Amino acid sequence: MWSEISIHTTHEAIEAVSNILHESGAGGVVIEDSLMLTKDWDTPFGEMYNLSPDDYPEEGVYVKAYLPVNSFLGETIEQIKESINNLMLYDIDYSPGTISITQVNEEDWASSWKKYYKPVAITEHITITPTWENYEKKDNEIVIELDPGMAFGTGTHPTTKLCIVELEKYISNNDIVYDVGCGSGVLSVVAAKLGASEVYSFDLDTVAINTTIINSKINKVDEKIVPKINNLLDGITKPADIIVANILAEVIVRLAKSIIPLLNKQGVFIASGIIVQKEQEVKAALEEAGLKIVDSNYDGDWVSIVSKRSE
Known about the structure:
2 domains, Rossmann fold
């Protein structure tokens, strides 16, 4: 038996709430976004699926996860509530922040994951597909196989898509890449498949590191990827050609001063996980740290920022 925990929150708080659920033992998250109902689906990428308004909030999003029903469930839920309330310390608007709990059977839990995750074309040449889907690869296509239930990061969230688009644009063969806050390892796998010779995947969560190892093996790039438990870039001394960080805007602001010493002369820093309201704050921190903004891209309420050394 499993419990589905559903949190009604804002777009700004999606990443933070998802991370709280992941750290509380959830194998993954489902995001039900009302914007999906009004999104312009006139695109050559992927397929369109019929969506029911009954599954979505009128405003904001539902962030859902599944937790096992055990003697610790009550304590875990209280910890989740406390962590969500603490988001105000980071000036993150998580309102209304309401939480609902429902129980689901094992077979219902398994099938609920599969109905939400289908192959998604991120760019013309990169597609992400769940491991259980029988996806037929097209010519000149890079296919990334992931199990969304293993760790935070399915590759389909706008912030991850933005990172993948930038990696495809800037990465060169034999580049050294740092993936800061690697989650499921999707960006590490993409970097390796795009030609990077060495990819270092950093995360504080052992689940994320173990999942990155698994996903790198599934995609046959494990010889290129070095997962490591690490707090951001603390203690790292070897420069990289590309540093990518899909994390909270507030963390990127703190990380900014660490970038230049670890970036090769022509290197690129790709930052995402940034809600548009925080864009100028992040850009100001990057410029103050000596970085030059060279590119910005948007997907709904999210923005990615690309910067290089100014000298």
